[in-house]
Design goal:
Blueprint (H helix, E strand, L loop, with lengths): L10 E8 L3 E2 L9 H16 L8 E5 L10 H8 L7 E5 L5 H14 L5 E9 L9 H12 L3 H24 L11 H5 L9 H11 L4 H17 L1 H4 L6 E2 L7 E2 L11 H6 L20 E11 H6 L6 E10 L8 H13 L8 E4 L4 H11 L2 H8 L19 H4 L6 H16 L3 E8 L3 E9 L1
Parallel strand pairs: 3-4, 3-5, 10-11
Antiparallel strand pairs: 1-8, 1-9, 2-8, 5-8, 6-7, 9-12, 11-12
Helix pairs in contact: 1-2, 3-16, 4-5
Amino acid sequence: MAKTSKSARDVVIVEGLRSPFAKSGDKLASVHPADLGKNVLKELIARTELDVSLVDEVIIGNTGNPVDSVNISRVVALSSGIPQKTSAYTVHRNCASALESISNGFEKIRSGTMDVVVAGGTENMSQMPTMIPNKMQKIFNDLFKAKGPSQAIPLLWKLFKADVKQIKALLQSNLKDEYAPIIAVMQGLTDPFVGINMGQTAEILAKEWGLSRLTQDQYALRSHQLASGAKEKFKDEIVPLSLPPDYKETIAEDIGPRANQTIEALQKLKPFFDRETGSITAGNSCPITDGAAMVLLMSREKAESLGYKPQARILSYGFAGLEPERMGLGPVYSTPVALKRAGIEFKDLGLVELNEAFAAQVLSCQKAFDSDEFARSKLGLSQKVGELRSEIMNVNGGAIALGHPVGATGTRIVLTLMKEMKRRQVQFGLATLCIGGGQGGSMILEAE
């Protein structure tokens, strides 16, 4: 096993928490993303008995910036009791936004610029703004300029007919035609460089790596089974949330994992992104989700002076780019970068959290990690990165069951990894994920 030395400028994670994750349109749909973040951060402050005057900065990831909280990190910070003197900013790196927030905090602490940083992410995908095609926008523009009922009524009728037509076409479309942009999430998940959405990139990987529909569905079933079996574990990281407007109902568990999921039910689902020859379905993809997660970072010197016992040390992180149409392989590109910076090898890893955007994406990464040919031709390495054994990967399930609130997932996988490393007394762990646009992000933790 690799050995590492400790120093005063080590960046450690004192504690971390998250909200329950809920499918878009479900229990968290009406909760503002700033409130999701506030609920988690206030509890993190309370549990750690943190003197908020010591916080140097708050850094939060978010992708669907709400119009009333564009710098949502500042809103979350102030509403959580962080002093006005403490700066806060929001970061956006698509799916890795909340990993980027931790990476930013890591650099500031390691450099000696800061000692205490709150990092995390929040996202309410239910509340992402609706986008409409240009033809419908023109009708709205004309409606705003209408003078009196005689001009407005024909336009309203035209808008009604257009709306019905757009929705019908969307439901019948293959997500390639002019109507797809009605849904903001689909537009946001379409790569502007290659013009295909994330599901279509997963179809490319499934075909190139020879992944059958059954294999993908079996992996999805595994995710639901493991996540359902980990509910007790997740209590250690989830902050219960009382729901507006009357706050009489409280949720304390993720709304997503299905204990009764069967392979038969998954096999019945039709391909969603390529209806003719595809294998990616709603069942073997992660659902669109709402949620938030936060961690408290400190220098080792500061943590010890305050009497904290850190749970993990961040050894390194790495980001790397690749073809946007194969974005799902991002972890295979970024992990060697993080491993080199950490001074350890892939075989030293005892646990891996690899975000499950799609079953095909995870399974393709497994194959690519273990391929000498891929390492030589794509990564410039002399041999494969290493074998990613299923028994150490996503041992509590993943995003196929839990969901993927894109602005928060990067922190969620670091948090879940840290807690499980402590339970299993694992020295090194990897949190990694693919990033829309053709990137990968990885972070190496060492248990304290």
